[in-house]
Structure formats: C-alpha cells, structure tokens
Amino acid sequence: xxxxxxxxxxxxxxxxxxxxxxxxxxxxxxxxxxxxxxxxxxxxxxxxxxxxxxxxxxxxxxxxxxxxxxxxxxxxxxxxxxxxxxxxxxxxxxxxxxxxxxxxxxxxxxxxxxxxxxxxxxxxxxxxxxxxxxxxxxxxxxxxxxxxxxxxxxxxxxxxxxxxxxxxxxxxxxxxxxxxxxxx
Length: 184
Known about the structure:
This protein has helices at residues 10-24, 45-53, 133-152, and strands at 28-35, 57-63, 70-77, 87-93, 100-109, 114-122, 158-164. The protein is α+β, with helices and mostly antiparallel strands.
C-alpha cells in the first residue's frame, strides 16, 4: 500500500521535516528508516539532516544489520541535556533474520533535573504470508527492548518509547526476503 506522500520526492519531504524541527526545536527527535546508503537514490540524506540540525542536535545513529541501508537516528538537543553521564545502548534484536535494531539512551535533562531514558525502535513489518511475524518476532523484539529499558531505568527515571511499530497488519506487499516458519 502506498501513501500519497510516497509520490512526493524524498528531499521535499525531508526538507519539510527539517523545517518543522528547526521551528519547534524538540528536546529529542527519534527517526526510523533513516537512510545510511550514500550511493542510493537518496544520496545526500544524512548530509541534509546534519546540515540542517547538526548545530543544535547531537546525532546517535544505528544502521540495521545485514544488507539493510536504513536504521535509526536519535537526535538529542544539546541545550536540553547534560553531556556528561549520557549512556548509549545499541541493540541488535532477535531473531537475527529480521535485521532489526534499537537504541536506548540514558540522559540527564537539564530543565527537569531528571534522568530520561529513551528507546528508539523499528519493529519488523508484519507479513500476511507467514504465521510468525506477529505472534513471535515482534513480541520477541519489543520484549528485548523493554527488558533493556527496565534494566537501566531507575524508579525516578522518565521513560519514553518511540518508533515505527509497523502495525499495519493488512500489509500486502511481500517482503524482499522470503523465510519460512521452520527457519525461524
């Protein structure tokens, strides 16, 4: 299923995202499907974000495993968080054939005086042609993220989970890689 936004060139869409972020200056920005492939059709993707937001934000990026060209980017506004004491946890999620990752950041928010723990994740897309993405893979992935979150967050931490949860169970596009339940 394609969105009308898919017809808008990527640079126009992402310039608009950057315009919004520059205007609003949120303390944290969690991006999924952040493109790392400098040779792709989206040549200049990273450079666009870095040029537009690099003065204001610290970038924590994690590429998906395998041959995937996208991943996660968590942008943290330097003026809002202490630089000392920041801890980054990069996770490669199981099952490995899904090629999914998550980031968890532990930060001290200057204005609130509180420890903030942020998870940025993109779960595997549900495939209607198999019987394991929804009942097995996705719950396994989010459990790994939540287990790590609860192991690093204290009782007084503020915890956020952001991400592309890929919740459209009616997706009809076949995945680029076929795998069977036996391979799971």
